[in-house]
Amino acid sequence: MSRDATAGPGSFPLDAAPLLSRSTVDRREGLRDTPDGGAEMWTSGRMLLVDARGRTPIDAESRLDLQPAVDFGDGPAPHSVLLGVQDGTSYWAMRTEHDGAQDGWINLRSGGALLSDTDAGLLTTAVGLLGWHDNARYCAICGAATVPVRTGWARTCTGCDREEYPRTDPAVICLIHDGADHVLLARQPVWPPDRYSVIAGFVEVGESLEACVEREALEEVGVPVTDVRYLGSQPWPFPRSLMLGFAATADRDAAITPADGEIEDARWVHRDVVLAALDSEGDAVDGLRLPPSVSIAHRMIRGWAIWK
């Protein structure tokens, strides 16, 4: 990756699309409003089973182990959701009571990087959508039970007819650098030893994304930032976040004040150390382990580190 001669030192891109942002199926809204409720698509469909912890089976070639939808009924099964259509095949998902841990099923964190673009998009959508259904069974207005409609993309209240749609909670994630060769990385106390990453936090009501970046930088590490710039996004269905990636610059001489109880440590790290950590296959380099490749944080850090 080479730098445009007119670009400033902070004008780096992500090194590649975030792994959980990959998707190839057609998920147009009109697919969810078929007169037969998706029954015709069901006959050619493939089913993705997801357990309560977001795990699903894969085959020996790291492909999703999909089953014929008709194995689960003559028409769309109760509580199944339509993920999309591709090449004449519809893709569905439903919750299974089977405990996938017994059979080595993978989840997005452990196996998302192994999946193809199509499979990664299917599982990411399924985990997020099924998780929303698990927590949206009762109306927030009148308390009556809700039922799924529109092939799983909405729920209707049986009491007041209110229709509710899947929620996504926006969160910013920001790489802070000094405009030269250092990046500010921090670690939470609950993380594995030596794991450091960029800062992140949820967007508050009435707050712009840029203002959230500035607030989180001050709250988490006590550092004022400038030149806030958008990089890209990634769904993070744990349970329903959308990570919005940004870069910002800060003065390396500014005092670092880790947030009590949230940030155990924060420090400036030189590009050479980051590059070595990226090449270490998970081993610590100078007390530094970076986020796994399945996260947008990894793509942001790598994008900054290799931008020459």
From TrEMBL:
Enzyme class: hydrolase
PROSITE patterns, per the entry: NUDIX (PS51462), NUDIX_BOX (PS00893)
Positions of the Nudix hydrolase domain: 166-292
Keywords of this entry: Hydrolase, Magnesium, Metal-binding, NAD
Annotated stretches, region: Disordered: 1-39
Pfam families documented for this protein: NUDIX, NUDIX-like, Zn_ribbon_NUD
Cofactor: Zn(2+); Mg(2+)
Record-given protein name: NAD(+) diphosphatase
Species annotation: Saccharopolyspora cebuensis
Gene: nudC
